[in-house]
Amino acid sequence: MSRRRQIYEGKAKILYEGPEPGTIIQYFKDDATAFNAEKKGTINGKGVINNRISEHIFTLLGHIGIPTHFIRRLNMREQLVKQVEIVPIEVIVRNVAAGSLSKRLGIEEGTPLPHTLLEYCYKDDALGDPLVAEEHIACFGWASQEEMQDISAMAIRINDFMAGMFAGIGIRLVDFKLEFGRVFEGDFSRIILADEISPDGCRLWDIKTDEKLDKDRFRRDLGGEAEAYQEVARRLGLFPEGVSEVTDLNSERKKRGK
Q1: For residue 241, what pLDDT band results from cuts at 50, 70 and 90?
Q2: Which residues are CB-contacts of 20 (< 8 A; sequence separation ≥ 6)?
Q3: Which residue in 82, 88, 162, 232 could disulfide with 69, CB within 3.0 to 4.6 Å?
Q4: Rounded distance, CA 97 to CA 188, Å?
Q5: Contact assessment for residue 193 and residue 154, using Cβ atoms and an 8 Å cutoff
Q6: What is the spatial distance between Cα 201 and Cα 198, in angstroms, rounded to a whole number?
Q7: Where are the chain's structural domains?
Q8: Which CATH class, in words, describes the domain spanning 85-206?
Q9: Distance between CA atoms of 200 and 177, rounded to whole angstroms?
Q10: Which pLDDT score, from 0 to 100, does residue 118 have?
């Protein structure tokens, strides 16, 4: 499928005009950023793996009744999605204390939380995506009360499903971020899950060893980022043991001399 007009380029993805009205082509890059893009780098093959992982999780979520923007994967780095009006709120779902929560509240990283915690951040790179309360969201009209009820209910359902899915393959779902969007049907709109779900936006720890299998390996200069992402995909059954599409992609590039 030939690419059309570029609509937007973000830290990890490029969005292109889709082949039909109301669709977008989402291209996954290998670029990696951290600390509001203060740290930049590349994780070889990340875009390929994130495309597959996100496709897999969005498909499974669709099967349990979570409405999403995902339509189908087009190739190794691209997927076709519904065009949505993004709600300018990132939802952070936390099961275990880690990252900014531990720093803000002085809670030791790795401490299980009494119950799942939802936090909200206002999506604005220039402001560093600040933490906000539901009162801010209502006051500034970023989302209606009914929309926030749908968002929070979906976030809890997604967490319940994903926590069980990852536990079944020996991974603890520590926390993750979600983004939602509006799709319009006549005079009405409804909320659906958008963006991606991948090791870029999740903290995933091996249940037995607490080894980090996510972007914290890049944030904290731990190394082995590509291998960690591949391990998540392998455990999800997306790549055969010892083989990955990233390996196949690199081999193909060498054959072509690229």
Answers
A1: low
A2: none
A3: 82
A4: 38
A5: yes
A6: 6
A7: 85-206
A8: alpha beta
A9: 9
A10: 98
